[in-house]
Amino acid sequence: MYRRMVQIRHFEEHAAEAYAQAKVGGFLHLYIGEEAVAVGAIAAVREEDHVLGHYRDHGYALAKGCDPKACMAELFGRETGLCHGRGGSMHLAEAARHYWGGYAIVGSHIPIGAGMAYAMQYLEQPEVVLDFFGDGATGNGIFHEGLNMAALWNLPVVFICENNLYGMGATLAEESPVRDMIIKAEGYTMPSVQCDGMDVLSVYEAVQKAAAHCRSGQGPYFVEALTYRFRGHSMADPELYRDKDEVTRWKALDPIPKFGEFCVEHRISSEQELAQVKEEVEAEMLEAVRFADQSPWPDPATVDQWIYAKPIDPEAIATGPDQLSSVEG
Amino acid sequence: MAEISYRQAVRDAMREEMMRDPRVILMGESITGYGGSYAVTKGLIDEFGPKRVMETPIAEAGIVGFAVGAAMGGLIPVAELMTVNFALLALDQVVNSAAKFHYMFGGQWSVPMVVRTVSGFGQLGPTHSQSFEGWFASVPGLKVVMPATPADAKGLLLAAIRDPDPVIFIEHSLLYSTRGEVPGPALGDGEVPIGQAKVVREGSDVTLVGYSRMLLQALHAAEVLEREDGISCEVVDLRTLRPLDYPTVVNSVRRTHRLVLCGEDWRTGGFGASLLSEMQDRCFDDLDAPIQRVAMRDIPLPYSRELERLLIPSSEDIVTAVRRLS
Prior knowledge:
Chain A has about 325 residues and is of the alpha/beta class. Chain A has helices at about 1-20, 35-45, 60-65, 70-75, 110-120, 140-150, 170-175, 180-185, 200-215, 245-250, 255-265, 270-295, 320-329, and strands at about 50-55, 100-105, 130-135, 155-165, 165, 170, 190-195, 220-225. Chain A has one domain (about 1-320): 3-Layer(aba) Sandwich (Rossmann fold). In chain A, a hairpin with a 2-residue loop joins strand 5 and strand 6. In chain A, about 50% of the residues are buried. Chain B is globular and about 60 Å long.
């Protein structure tokens, strides 16, 4: 878990650097500060369990074991990216690992996770679904529709709310009448627990319990992880809405050194070993950036690939006069 | 051949496909005990039980999102949205989820699901009388089907359920009780491929293009024009709006040199607007006259019977449009 958290931290730092160099475009939302949530939660369940995340999604991909090279290449928009450059930073996914992606319409994946959980229940498969979203998503109707259905049909889905106190630039007080998101689960009679999102063990314990509950057929579970993003909402955020002291206070709770100290204290690892991990991860991330940078762009001829799984007649697509010759020729 | 109603045809397609494939499930509002707002799913709960015929909360976005997830998990959901007006609440899940995932995630998975919904009117007032097929048909990644006859309703719904991509299947409330022949088991299951238009009446002077209820209006107009004006109309049923069978329409125009597009949706931004644009690109040189459109005027459809009647596109409007051409 220590290595995974360091991977995410270093991946994000390199992504930010690449963004500053205009090698990564669009929106880039960093998971720095929240690493313990993805890592603790995903480590607490089985490899075959399903994960859906929101647009701040690099952490879930790495915690699920996706190759940092393919993740970075997706940010760079290259053919070797996880989604061949079609999705970008907000839409990493690797179905083979049951990592179903980052979803960037806030809250939209909440009923999708419930639907996947229904498929597991229907097909009598043992997997559970972890569905991550932020405190901001709880203001959206789709959050309530998804929770309502999951509870109504007793589905094996763990809803994990990363409460980082901000919905983009809105403070929690501005966007929600309650500070504790678990209160919102109560209306759906969903068991819930709050955990320390800056402590990987606290998250691990909470999600382990939640997943066991789901797997035993007792229905959904709601986990709220209290956390904080150390960086702005995205790279474009000047952070005018929160004060520096607050950021400093939370940075003192950095989950990585905290868990490092725990490992040393309990003689799980030595300081040298932890330093070694950081060095190895840094080399791995440098290699990921190099790989992404040297990877080919997607072939322009493939731009219309994958619109449909069952391809349609090319003549059935509106082309306009410029391309008609190629259609008719 | 057996003659059944459009309603029965839709129900038969779902029932037969559920019997054939245990992954197929239905979900929707009041589709179990009530039998669906247009009684299409009546009786299916008794035959297949609540696990496969799911009564849902009134939550259109949630229903479609849930169906997308169930499809990703290995099922084939057929979600009913009570009318296309309510489908607007689910537009995000249709456009940003169902239509996008195959492309956006680099072809890693597809979303095999059907959203069944209903267009129509009948003194239902401005919020319950709209047609939005053009909105759905504008989205790459979706397939959009609008059958006019019981045989096509059944055959296209079978194809939609078997298709690996998300299909928007728009029925018409005023067609449910119409009857027509549907191929019996001796002729196979009657699947009709998505993406194929059909020339339903041959003619030489003008091509009328319609779908859903407007196909019947076009056929009626063709009879009137033949009888009263001696004009020979060819009538093309699009059946699928996306992917659209342009070649069938183009070939017809090459014979008739005149084209009238018939729809029930609004003139501005309606499906006929983009069809007209593409037809001009494809067969401008074949046309002897400007393409005509029959569409709803840009006015919300009012409740009052006498006001409503002023606005609903009809066979008379098609007759008028054709007469303008000659």
